[in-house]
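Example record used in the benchmark description.
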Amino acid sequence: MTAVRLNTRIDPTVSTSANSATTPRLSSAIEVELQRFYGHHSGDAQLYRAKDEGKMARESADPLAMFRRRVTESGVLQDATFAEIDVEVAARIDGAVAGAKAAAPPKAEVLLQDVYISY
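Model output (structure tokens):
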């Protein structure tokens, strides 16, 4: 079995692993090192890491910001295109929120549907 640790570019590593997976009797494992932007859950005080670690990760390793920077610097897309996308995404989110607020509350018998938890 091939095992690799990944902390930079993912594309070549995943391609190599996928090719190995299609070869009989070959398997692979990919270990990915990454920074979480937020805690494990909404109430996580994150006392196990430095105060600004999450903020620094968001500023330096946000995949959307990295993509935007890469394609604008290479000339593939312009900032104006991203501005249009941002407006469209905000409108879709606003529409979804408005629809959810206007929807009737769920019936009691479906509240626990597709909830997989037991105590």
